[in-house]
């Protein structure tokens, strides 16, 4: 298979497991799968692992870029994420009032000789990472058969 152009991701059956998928980007290739407990081969991260990875890596990279640009002594960032589903009525800040909604919990650990103002500003910047903005706004997904 030829490499897709930058900005395009191609996902195909890997042919090695019931749910195992080969993910190809412009410069990388890896497997995604489901755990054995649901019939997969556990040959790679799950789709939700990949979604959380996108948010976590974007958060950490955005914080690094900001800290470098502003001369903030951030030495390490660790982002821990979890996805679950909760009843809409249990969400204080959600527009949806009925049924279940997805919730992503993100914990950010900031290391370095940071004062309280720098820590607070970095947490504000975390919400400005492009993937966070994408997930927080309306998303239109268009599907076409080829």
TrEMBL record:
It comes from the Bacteria. Keywords: Oxidoreductase, Peroxidase. It holds the Pfam family OsmC. It is an enzyme of class 1 (oxidoreductase). InterPro entries: KH_dom-like_a/b, OsmC/Ohr_fam, OsmC/Ohrsf. One of its GO terms (molecular function) is peroxidase activity. The keyword Protease does not apply. Its EC number is 1.11.1.-. PANTHER family: OSMC-LIKE PROTEIN (PTHR39624:SF2), PROTEIN INVOLVED IN RIMO-MEDIATED BETA-METHYLTHIOLATION OF RIBOSOMAL PROTEIN S12 YCAO (PTHR39624). This is OsmC family protein. It comes from Amycolatopsis silviterrae.
């Amino acid at each position: 298979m030829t490499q897709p152009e930058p900005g395009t991701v191609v996902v195909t059956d890997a042919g090695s497991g019931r749910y195992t998928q080969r993910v190809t980007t412009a410069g990388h290739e890896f497997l995604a799968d489901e755990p054995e407990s649901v019939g997969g081969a556990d040959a790679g991260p799950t789709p939700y692992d990949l979604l959380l990875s996108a948010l976590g890596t974007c958060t950490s990279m955005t914080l690094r870029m900001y800290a470098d640009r502003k001369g903030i002594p951030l030495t390490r960032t660790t982002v821990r994420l979890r996805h679950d589903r909760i009843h809409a009525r249990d969400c204080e800040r959600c527009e949806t009032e009925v049924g279940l909604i997805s919730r992503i919990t993100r914990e950010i650990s900031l290391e370095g000789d940071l004062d309280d103002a720098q820590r607070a500003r970095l947490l504000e910047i975390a919400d400005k990472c492009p993937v966070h903005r994408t997930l927080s706004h309306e998303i239109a997904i268009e599907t076409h058969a080829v």
